Fold this protein.
Amino acid sequence: MELEKVNTCSLVEELKKRDGVEVTIAEPYQDEEIKINGPAVVLVITD
């Protein structure tokens, strides 16, 4: 399976199930503030 061919929404759904993944959802027109104590990788995915 080539990950380049997997759509983003499927990748995100799989990552949400993994240990060590914290999900914060900002609804449309809602500001959200996230505090990080690293090490961390922050992905902002706009769908």
